[in-house]
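Q: Trace token order:
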Amino acid sequence: MAHSVVWSERALQDVEALGEYIARDSVTYARAVVRKIFGVGYKLQQFPFSGRVVPEFQVPTIREFLVYSYRVIYHTGASTVTVLAVVHGRQNLAPEEDR
């Protein structure tokens, strides 16, 4: 059964900011990156556990899919996948005291 995919407001803002930033150098590349990020949603409908567990959290339902240099972070529920954020691959999500 296919999961429904919901993009959080934070994730949508992340993608918008990312697209605007990349477009400063290349509108074409920005479109390609944004398209590929949103394409993750289609994959997650059928394969919600296809991404790896986010290393900083080690929670089986919080996963990420890597797209170019970016991490698409999502939560998998019983029938819904919620995309939580899109961050740069070098960004560490662990709290300061855990680093």
Observations:
- The chain is about 35% helix and 30% strand.
